[in-house]
Specification:
Chain A: It catalyses: ATP + protein L-histidine = ADP + protein N-phospho-L-histidine. The complex is a heterodimer of chains A (787) and B (91). With 787 residues, chain A is an alpha+beta fold. Chain A contains 27 helices and 22 strands. The two termini of chain A are 62 Å apart. Chain B has 91 residues and is an alpha/beta fold. Chain B has one domain. Chain B is 38% helix and 23% strand. Chain B has 3 helices and 6 strands; from the N terminus they run βββαββαβα. In chain B, the strands form 2 sheets. In chain B, strands 1-2-4-6 form a 4-stranded mixed beta sheet, with helices on one face. In chain B, a hairpin with a 3-residue loop joins strand 1 and strand 2. At the A-B interface, helix 7, helix 8 and strand 2 of A face helix 1, helix 2 and helix 3 of B.
Chain lengths: 787, 91
């Protein structure tokens, strides 16, 4: 499976759980703005991520849910239990879909029909204005019964002739309206290619847009055409041909009467009278056959058994009938139905659905003459929301504390293991058994290997390179930039910076929001860029760097930047800042107003962003991690967002040095070089020891003095100097001895030592020693004070 | 190459895929009196058809391909029946 999809599925699971929990809590505490916001944010993120994949139904459904939640969030609508039910049903349906996606990597065939009803219901409280054309098609298929109006696209003369021929031969013809999605080219669909594969194509009408865009505005990747075609191919052939785009086609079967009626403009006949005008909703024919079989089975099972209301048996039959109805695209509400109404309903459904191929129905009704086990009936094949499915690969979620504990235990194991070497020595010296000593040492070697591997494994559990967080962006940027018609070059730096799994995971959402914001609002279209004297291709940079006890992730673009005045004005209009602040806020503070809840400068809510949820969500999730986010921007030159995230359990590579017998660690990132300088070459400038290196004067700080430790270099011996770069300044540290570099797990200073700013943390070395890791900035400050 | 683009004439050869759409559209945008030969064209991507419909270049030779000749060519040469008129969207 595509790793992006796998990641989406894993995240989706969390988001779904979040939405469910939020909605349930909302029922208990209606109108809690923080809860509404949380659910909304989850839905928003869901919609955003789903856009990466070819799941149009999923995006549409989440969009509908999001719109409803947006209204609730803004207070224009009060959430009632009906809406909550619909929302929960929507997310349950999605869960079912994702289970299907996990195994088949595509949505179930019934997704369009399943979603349509829900979308209509979700949109109903909003006035239902935004019901998409597709939803109408899908829900109204059961009632389209006559020549549709789009038949007018075919020329009348030909239609008259055809009607005559059909009347003479008393046969029918299929008419298809194929309305490709405007973004279908991106899904490698070629509508014309599909059309030319239609067998026995009689007539093709190409519907062109009423108004073509001007040659300059014309986007060659937006499909503007739709097709009307008449064919003698059978319904089955057409269904098969258009099986991947069922929501974009409408197929009707017409006889001469229907066509004549259409031509003369007469009102269409009622459904019962139009004998041959059968209309099939475009549903998976297998699915429809299954549904019909199910209905027959239910019917016979009801006929054979005397079931009573409330019986579990009856309930499972009700369940089965409902899912069959859903599969046929005519959802019914059967809650509490008794046997008689159920039978009537089954009759109606069997009548409404297009007649099953006679053989199939016959076979099945004989096959299921005996009462069908209730369980078999309930497990309707093809049911989209099969609860047995599993979303995403099985990922074990373990409490962070448990992994921390494991890490501690590994550390202790290392210490205990090292005790064996002493035991070996004792065996030889005290008990005089060299053989025993050797055997203990052998044992030690084995344990050492295992302990090392164990430590590596536990670290591996927690550590991930940032490339995991960055991995989804090339695709996201590509897709969005094409959709927006902008040319964007994505640059990533420092992908191999390792960070704690928690940090990486939590970075996902904020980064998506930031990148999307940059693409949508920050980066200008190419022509605007050229006019501003910039290269036409914009540059979006994602960079990560470890900074002592933090990971810094920067998202920067060279777009139009943020206009501090406009931000201030917007914030004032939205009531986020007072009039005084409007006057006094500095430009850099104004830019950071975008992180306030409810802020959005975009006047248009787009598919990408602009609901004012993005930056607010970024801030919320970064602060949850204990990090901070700041934005700098130069109007017209670009925006630069910096996320600083703590490194609670990240691996740090440190250089170990010792002073006065005590070992200290210094982050390797800061180390420039280690040198030994003859004592005579040390100079002194204004009370400051210095050393000349390659024509550069480097100040040298006596680490022992700075840390107040009793040690002085042996006179006449070479000085060992560790050159570090802090704030892009080179500084030498006088130390007693250099040791090796080690990977350590840095733990923040706690308890009594928490005040000690000169240490960024402690680490347990393999031999049981506790290593203090220096925070160089503070140490330099300390040295300055001591001097 | 499915596209043979010259200053004012273009030959579409074989199957014109979505990858060629951008280049074709660009050419149609700039060419002053574009003439397009479809003789050796076997299939046009919808995007290419759409571009031809929008920019209405002169079709200098008809396609050999039966589907293109019977169903698509009439749209491009303007000798289309009422079915292909430009007008209001269908209801």
């Amino acid at each position: 499976m595509n790793p992006l999809l796998a990641q989406f599925l894993a995240e989706a699971n969390d988001l779904l759980a979040q939405v469910d929990e939020g909605l349930l809590q909302l029922e208990r505490v209606p109108g809690d703005p923080e809860l509404v916001n949380e659910v909304f944010r989850a839905a928003h993120t869901f919609k955003g991520s789903s856009g990466l994949f070819d799941f149009p139904e999923l995006t549409r459904l989440t969009h509908a849910a999001e719109d409803l939640l947006d209204q609730v969030r803004s207070g224009r609508l009060a959430l009632d239990s009906g809406m909550t039910d619909d929302l929960l049903a929507a997310f349950d349906l999605i869960r079912g879909w994702l289970a299907h996606v996990t195994t088949h990597e595509r949505l179930p065939a019934s997704a369009g029909t399943d979603a349509a009803g829900l979308i209509t219901r979700l949109r109903a409280p909003l006035g239902g204005e935004a019901v998409t054309a597709v939803a109408t098609t899908a829900t109204s298929t059961a009632t389209i019964d006559v020549a549709p109006e789009w038949l007018a696209w075919l020329d009348a003369e030909w239609l008259t002739e055809t009607a005559g021929w059909l009347a003479t031969t008393s046969s029918t013809m299929r008419f298809v309206r194929y309305f490709p999605d405007s973004d279908c080219f991106f899904r490698a669909e070629d509508p014309l290619h599909l059309v030319r594969q239609v067998p026995a194509l009689e007539r093709l009408g190409v519907v062109q847009p009423r108004v073509w865009p001007g040659p300059d505005d014309y986007d060659e990747y937006v499909c503007l055409l739709s097709f009307i075609l008449a064919t003698r191919a059978s319904l089955g052939e057409l269904e098969y041909l258009f099986r991947y785009v069922p929501d974009q086609v409408q197929i009707v079967e017409l006889d001469s009467d229907a066509i004549t009626r259409h031509l003369s403009g007469e009102p269409p006949l009622q459904v019962e009278a139009a004998v041959t005008a059968a209309v099939m909703p475009m549903i998976d024919s297998d699915l429809a056959a299954d549904a019909r079989a199910l209905l027959h089975a239910a019917q016979s099972s009801l006929a054979v058994d005397d079931v009573v209301a409330g019986d579990t048996r009856l309930r499972s039959v009700v369940h089965a009938v409902a899912s069959a109805a859903r599969a046929l695209g005519v959802p019914v509400n059967l809650t509490g139905a008794d046997r008689a109404t159920l039978l009537a309903e089954i009759d109606r459904l069997l009548g409404a659905a297009a007649p099953a191929p006679a053989g199939v129905a016959e076979d099945l009704s004989t096959a299921v003459a005996a009462p069908v086990p209730a369980a078999a009936v309930a497990d309707a094949p093809g049911r989209a929301d099969d609860p047995g499915g599993q979303v995403g690969t099985r990922v074990l979620k373990v409490d962070q504390e448990k992994v921390d504990r494991l890490m501690e235990l590994v550390g202790e194991l290392n210490v205990a293991k090292n005790g064996l070497t002493f035991l070996a020595d004792a065996a030889e010296e005290e008990f005089g058994s060299r053989v025993l000593s050797r055997r203990i040492k052998d044992q030690y070697a084995g344990m050492h290997r295992i302990a090392e591997e164990l430590q590596a494994a536990v670290m591996d559990v927690r550590m991930l390179p940032l490339s995991v967080a960055f991995g989804r962006f090339p695709r996201l940027v590509r897709d969005l930039s094409r959709r927006l018609g902008k040319t964007i070059e994505l640059v990533t730096e420092g992908e191999d910076t390792m960070a704690d799994k928690d940090v990486i995971e939590a970075l996902g959402d904020p980064l998506v929001h930031l990148v999307r914001n940059s693409l949508d609002h920050g980066i200008e279209p190419s022509d605007e860029r050229i006019a501003a004297g910039k290269p036409p291709a914009a540059r979006l940079t994602l960079a990560a760097v470890a900074d002592g006890d933090a990971v810094i992730v920067e998202v920067s673009d060279d777009g139009r930047g943020v206009d501090p005045e406009r931000v201030k004005r917007k914030a004032y209009e939205k009531g986020l800042i007072s009039e005084e602040e409007l006057e006094t806020l500095s430009e850099s503070d104004a830019v950071n107003l975008v992180f306030r809840a409810g802020f959005s400068t975009a006047d248009q809510v787009s598919d990408l962003s602009g609901r004012g949820v993005g930056m607010d969500a970024v801030r919320a999730s970064v602060e949850k991690l204990g990090g901070s986010v700041t934005m700098r921007s130069k109007l017209g030159q670009g925006t630069f967002t910096r996320l600083r995230l703590p490194l609670s359990m990240a691996v740090t590579q440190v250089m170990v040095v010792s002073v006065a017998g005590q070992r200290f660690g210094i982050p390797v990132d800061l180390v420039v070089e280690t040198v030994r300088v003859p004592a005579g070459e040390m100079g002194r400038v204004l009370h400051q020891d210095v050393v000349m290196m390659r024509g550069e004067v480097v100040p040298v700080i006596d680490l022992a003095r700075a840390l107040d430790m009793p040690w002085a270099p042996t006179p006449g011996e070479d000085r060992r100097i560790l050159v570090v770069s802090v704030n892009s300044q080179r500084i030498g540290l006088l130390v007693e001895q250099f040791h090796r570099e080690v990977d350590v797990i840095l733990k923040p200073m706690e308890g009594l030592l928490a005040y000690a700013d000169e240490f960024s943390g402690t680490a347990l070395l393999g031999d049981g020693l506790v290593l203090l890791v220096l925070n160089m900035k503070e140490v330099l400050g300390l040295a300055a004070r001591v001097a | 190459m499915p596209l043979e683009l010259h200053e004012e004439t273009a030959n579409l050869v074989g199957v014109v895929t979505v990858d060629e759409v951008e280049q074709l559209t660009g050419w149609l945008r700039t060419a002053r009196r574009p003439k397009v030969s479809l003789r050796r064209c076997n299939h046009l991507h919808t995007g290419a058809l759409q571009a031809l419909l929008l920019f209405k270049p002169k079709i200098s030779s008809a396609p050999n391909d039966a589907f293109l000749a019977t169903q698509v060519l009439p749209l491009l040469t303007g000798s289309s029946g009422p079915a292909n008129k430009q007008g209001s969207d269908p209801p």
